[in-house]
C-alpha cells in the first residue's frame, strides 16, 4: 500500500471569514493558504489554517459553498495525502467504497485528487502533489 498521511480536517461553513478570525483568536491558528473556486462548477472558497508552531503539516480547512445553504454543524470532510491517488481510489473501491468525484489533476495547483465515499457515504478526499 502507498504511504498515507492525514492532511487536513475540513469544516463546511456558512461564513469562512468569521471563522478564520475565530480559530485565529481562540486557537492561535494562522492562514497558510486559500483556494478560490468561485469560477468552478460548484462555486466555493477554501481557507487553510495551521496551528502556529505546530510540528506537523496537518491543517484545518474552512470551506464555504456560495450556492448552498449554511450547513448543519457537524458536517465535515477528511483528506489524506497519498503517494498514488489512483492506487488509493482502487483500494477504496475494492473495500466497498465508491467514487464521488473521479480523479483529476489540477496543473495550476500542482496536485491530483479524487473524492471517494466510504460504505456509509462519507466523503474522503485523497490528494497527491505532482511536479
UniProtKB/TrEMBL annotation:
First and last residue of the signal peptide: none
Location of the VOC domain: 5-129
Highest taxon of source: Bacteria
Pfam name, any one: Glyoxalase
CDD domains in the record: VOC
Gene3D superfamilies: 2,3-Dihydroxybiphenyl 1,2-Dioxygenase, domain 1
Matches recorded under InterPro entries: Glyas_Bleomycin-R_OHBP_Dase, Glyas_Fos-R_dOase_dom, VOC_core
Listed name of the protein: VOC family protein
